Each structure stands twice: as structure tokens, then as C-alpha cells.
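Q: Hi! First time doing this. I have a protein sequence and I read that you can turn it into a structure. Is that right? Here it is:
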Amino acid sequence: MASLSCSASDLVTLLGGVPNATDAADYICGRFEAISNKFIETGYAVDNTYLLFSAYLVFAMQLGFAMLCAGSVRAKNTMNIMLTNVIDAAAGGLFYYIFGFAIAFGTPSNGFIGKHFFGLTEFPTESFEYSFFLFQWAFAIAAAGITSGSIAERTQFIAYLIYSSFLTGLVYPIVSHWFWSTDGWASPARSENLLFGSGVIDFAGSGVVHLVGAIAGLWGAYIEGPRIGRFDHAGQSVALRGHSGTLVVLGTFLLWFGWYGFNPGSFVTILKAYGESGSFYGQWSAVGRTAVTTTLAGCTAALTTLFGKRLLSGHWNVTDVCNGLLGGFAAITGGCSVVDPWAAVLCGFVASWVLIGCNKLAEKLHYDDPLEAAQLHGGCGSWGIIFTALFAKKEYVNEVYPGLPGRPYGLVMGGGARLLAAHAVQILVVVGWVSVTMGTLFFILHKLKLLRITAEEEMAGMDLTSHGGIAYVYTDEYQDDAAKRGIC
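A: Yes, that's right. Below is the predicted 3D structure, encoded as C-alpha cells:
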């Protein structure tokens, strides 16, 4: 934020023959500079407060993930899945502090990996405040939360500890460095040598967060195999329904609420004018527009899923609608800041059908994901990456990513195909990187027999076998009896 200036020497001439003109000029300029500095400090405080509030909203999504996951699994695995969500946040916090933030945003660095601020040394700086670290940590643990849903109900707890630390400490930070750091090879914030003259516009992370978490979960669930009873002897799909629609809806609304930090909060600052100073239009307007596009995409996806699943299955299914809503949010996340509200409606409509199609494909391939996490965050996240490359508006792109005349924008909006090419590269490199790293990790855990629990433990439920008791126990006698009978 630029400071206002006052020159005592210039002011003396304006004061004319006033007695002690020099002293008066020095005094006036001193007061003026003090006021100017106070405005600068206020600006920093406003922006940091905005970012901290956004970080708190994103962190609240962890509670949403926990409730959604708990409601989507059977009662006998409730404590397990909720504990994994706690561990995602706790282990993710420590490893992101030691390694992750430095790898993601440590600057100056090369285009592949950051190399400063390990353990938040030499922090804060003019570029980064502690609020920025907190905000980015909340994003990192969101990616880990996505993965935990894919491998729910049959994964050893030690595997959660290992993969969560590895994902938040290394795999995710490198991806976020590529696309969000000013040094990243595919970042739109680079000062030169932008990918296809544009860089990748993945504003809040359809690819960086959602696709990363989805591909990690995809490999974990694929290597483990489906849950016992998910497919019958004839290969037909058997629904293993979650035990609480109430928790699913609660989790969905908490995630919806948190998404207003996830997407609008990704502006990082809010006190910035577009164009002439004093205008009513500025970054605060873009923040509001982003909240609107986020809302419309989710709402459209929810309604499309409601009627689409009614036509396909004959039921008004609340779980399907909740997943459809979240699929719309995952899709709009990448382009939420650079598209018009009408385009967000189209984004949500297509995202719903992408999710339905991915779920049908998963059933045919005998792929089992209790939360539909890989289908939702991977399928809809990929659509969101392509959607942004098609519908990004020139005006908004230049506002959000200023300083590059002639920057490419959406293909459908007349901006050419260069942005689409950059986004196709993003999908390929994210899928490749996460597959090599997380796929290899899950395979090693599988070979070391550290990945999947035994059949006996799975049938009895992980709450009894790994966590000391069932989540919904009211008496010790009931717990003992449940342990003997292996109650679900």
C-alpha cells in the first residue's frame, strides 16, 4: 500500500510570510505522515483480519468433513472416521509447519519447489504474514480430508498417519507451489515465461486441492479393493448405506458455510480498488461476485442431481443431493473469481451429470469409495478446470491477474485456446505427480501389510477392534454384548 507524501520545503512557499513558516511546515507534514502511516497500518490490519476470518471458515470445513464422513459410513466405523479427520488436521498442521509451507511458498525458489521458511524461520516477511500460513494450512488439510473418505471403513489407522503426513508435508505443497507460488512454473502470477502466455487459473483449487485429494484417494481405494459385501458374487453392486442422513446434511451445510472462506478468501486481500481510487468498485466487489458464483454453482448442481436421480432411480435421495451440491462447489472453485454468475449455473449443471456419470463408471469397474470422494472431487474438479478455461471473462481475468496485457482468457468468451491448453497440462501433471507419489506410497503400505485391516476386523467394525468401543454406546453391558456379536 503506497504512502501519501508531504514535502515541508514545498509547504513553506505556500505559507508565505507566516512567522515560523518552516517549523509550521514541518509540524503539518509530520501530522500528515502520521495519519498516512495510520491508514497504511489500518489497511494491513483489514486485509489480515479478512484472511484470518477466511482461514477460520476453511478450517470449519474440517468439522463438515468429519460429520459428512461419519454419516456416510456404517455406525460401527464412526469413531474411526472422525478420528482420522482430527488426525488430518493435527498431523497436517505439524508437517505443513515444518516442511509444507516452505515447499509451497518459500521464495525465492525455482519453478518446481520452494526452499525457504522451513519451520517458519525468518517469518513474517513483507510478503507473508502468519495469517497466510494459517490459511494455506487449512487448504492442505482439506486435501487430506478428501482422501480419507475414499479409503474409509477398511484402512489401518497407522496408514492414515503415514499418508496424511506425506500428503500435507510434500505431495500437496509441491502442487500448490507449481500453480500458486509466484515462482511456480505454471503460476499465473509469474512475472515472465508464463505457461502458454497465461499460466493456470486455478483460483481456489479445483485442481490444486480437489484433484490432488481425489487422485490420492483413488489409488488408496483401488489398491485396497472394495469393502466386504460391496459387490455380490455375481458382481452386482450392493449399497452399503451410511448410518445417518442427519450427519450427512449437517456436514454438507458446514462445508457450504466454509466454502465462503475457501473461494472468496482466496483473494487473500480485500482492501484494493480496481481503477481510480475512490471508486465503489474494487476487490471487495470481486469477493462478493465470487461468493455468488460459488452459491449458484452449488445450488444448480443440487437441484440437477435431485431431479436427475429421481429420473434414474425413482427416489428423492438426500445423500445424492448433498453430494451433487458439493460437486458443484468443487467444480466452481477453480474459476469462481473470473466467471459471470450465469456461467456458474452452467458449471453446476454439468458438474451434477459428471458426478452421476463417474459414479456409474465406478460401479462398473467395481471401485468402492464410501464418500464418492474420488468421483466428486476428481470428476467435478477436472470439469471445473476445463470450465474455467472455457468461460473465464477477460475483464475479470485482468482484474484478478493484472500486469499482463493480452493475457489469454476463456475459449468460449473469445480468448483463444491457450488457457485451455494450460489447463489440460494441469490435469495431466497433477494426475501424474499424485499417482507416482501417493500411488507408490499406498502400494508400499499394502506390501508391508500396513494398509488394509483384516476381514475379521472389518466385519466387527473398526470402532470395536481399533478404538475401544462403539460410538453410540450407552451402557457397558451393551458394549460387551456388541463386541461379542460384532454389531454393525
